């Protein structure tokens, strides 16, 4: 039998093995959804790591549970637990790492199904985190287990991680693991985020979060002329942003293949505004006292393009504030950077990209679409801290469903994505002759 014929036979056996594990893939996804790993505050992280430990240990992986001690949010009540599982091959070779976050966002309103029920209906599994990204985690596990069954004498190593806090920045998850050197032994990373099964996500835009505070002077609300209203000062900031900053951002465009189309420009979101006294949460606590607010805080979420410089991004905001300080009576402000991530984009000729491209062609009979995410995900830490560029996001699920009511993942999409992942393992770690 020629090497080409043998390779084709392995591919056929591997895809058939994935099909045979369809019911297991469904059950695994349901089990993962039924562990409510809500973030914030960070619930049941240890429970899901213990579940993954049992599953992966049974498949021959050596597992390690890692608590991100001292990371943002880590506490005795809500410890930031992660799991890293590794299985060594028969011979030396590269390491392929599948990274999935285990946390999910708040349920929110509008659900017609149990958000943690894992209901299967019409070929879809419903639940919070179904597509973002427990379906992807399940697909990577089944892909790895199927590959091990067909190619037990593979080269190199396979790693699977379940990590915390991606939805709140990933500092208690991938960032911590990268700081501890876990990615020093890795050559290829696939993050099964829900970018659609026929897309390869090469990276993401940059982000800069900041808190702006305007100052005033407290006084009796019936005599506001004796004080100085910080909320009105913030209103002037908003007005200037509307007049100058938002139009300028809309004019900036990128050559990055960002999806959706609206994210090909620079954007700014006003994430929150808080001015004056705290809101009354219950009607029986009485009316607020009549005072002029002496502080107003606004959090801005600026997403920027690979063509932009982070210093210029900051200067656009501080320029508005300094301009108002020089022209507006009694205006003063403070600004605090909360978070920054530079844009990242893996090259199309990187080994993991070309490998997954070929696997998509084999599985779906079409070329993939190369995209860039409008928001960041854990590739930022693998690139920035782990110093590993050979990283992509690829997984099942429809991006638009993430964080929505009645979130779901399609079973066929998971099966196809698992085939792509398994075929990628075959290329990177399988027989070479």
From TrEMBL:
Protein known as: Acetylornithine deacetylase/succinyl-diaminopimelate desuccinylase family protein
InterPro entries named in the record: ArgE/DapE (IPR010182), Bact_exopeptidase_dim_dom (IPR036264), Peptidase_M20 (IPR002933), Peptidase_M20_dimer (IPR011650), Peptidase_M20A (IPR050072)
Residue ranges of domain Peptidase M20 dimerisation in the record: 203-322
Family stated for the protein in its record: Belongs to the peptidase M20A family.
GO molecular function: hydrolase activity; metal ion binding
Keywords: Cobalt, Hydrolase, Metal-binding, Zinc
Presence of keyword Metal-binding: yes
Naturally occurring in which organism (per UniProt): Pseudooceanicola pacificus
UniProt cross-references to Pfam families, sorted A to Z: M20_dimer, Peptidase_M20
SUPFAM superfamilies, sorted: Bacterial exopeptidase dimerisation domain (SSF55031), Zn-dependent exopeptidases (SSF53187)
Required cofactor(s): Co(2+); Zn(2+)
């Amino acid at each position: 039998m020629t090497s080409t014929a043998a390779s084709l036979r392995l591919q056929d056996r591997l895809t058939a093995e994935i099909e045979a594990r369809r019911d297991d893939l469904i059950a695994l996804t349901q089990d993962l959804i039924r562990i409510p790993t809500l973030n914030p505050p960070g619930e049941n992280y240890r429970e899901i790591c213990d579940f993954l430990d049992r599953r992966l240990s049974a498949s021959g992986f050596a597992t390690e549970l890692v608590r991100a001690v001292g990371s943002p949010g880590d506490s005795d009540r809500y410890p930031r637990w992660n799991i890293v599982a590794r299985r060594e091959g028969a011979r030396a070779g590269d390491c392929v790492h599948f990274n999935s976050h285990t946390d999910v966002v708040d349920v929110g309103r509008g659900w017609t199904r149990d958000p943690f029920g894992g209901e299967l209906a019409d070929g879809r599994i419903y639940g919070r985190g179904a597509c973002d990204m427990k379906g992807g985690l399940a697909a990577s596990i089944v892909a790895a287990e199927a590959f091990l069954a067909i190619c037990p004498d593979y080269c190199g190593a396979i790693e699977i991680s379940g990590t915390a806090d991606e939805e709140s920045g990933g500092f208690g998850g991938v960032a911590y693991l990268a700081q501890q050197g876990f990615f020093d032994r890795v050559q290829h990373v696939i993050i099964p985020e829900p970018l659609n099964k026929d897309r390869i996500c090469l990276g993401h835009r940059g982000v800069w979060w900041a808190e702006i505070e305007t100052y005033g002077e407290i006084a009796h609300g019936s005599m506001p002329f004796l004080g100085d209203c910080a909320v009105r000062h913030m209103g002037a900031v908003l007005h200037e942003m509307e007049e100058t900053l938002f139009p300028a951002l809309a004019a900036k465009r990128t050559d990055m293949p960002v999806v959706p189309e609206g994210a090909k420009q620079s954007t700014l979101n006003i994430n929150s505004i808080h001015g004056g006294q705290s809101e009354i949460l219950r009607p029986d606590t009485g009316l607020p006292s009549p005072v002029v607010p002496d502080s107003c805080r606004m959090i801005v979420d600026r997403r920027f393009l690979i063509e932009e410089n982070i210093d210029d991004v900051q200067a656009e905001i501080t320029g508005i504030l300094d301009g108002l300080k020089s022209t507006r009576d009694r205006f003063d402000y403070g600004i605090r950077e909360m978070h920054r991530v530079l844009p990242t984009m893996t090259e199309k000729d990187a080994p993991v990209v070309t490998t997954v491209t070929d696997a998509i062609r084999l599985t779906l009979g079409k070329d993939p679409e190369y995209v860039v995410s409008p928001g960041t995900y854990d590739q930022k830490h693998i690139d920035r801290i782990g110093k590993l560029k050979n990283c992509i996001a690829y997984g099942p699920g429809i991006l638009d469903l993430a964080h929505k009511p009645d979130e779901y993942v399609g079973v066929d999409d998971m099966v196809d994505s698992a085939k792509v992942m398994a075929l990628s393992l075959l290329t990177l770690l399988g027989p070479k002759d």
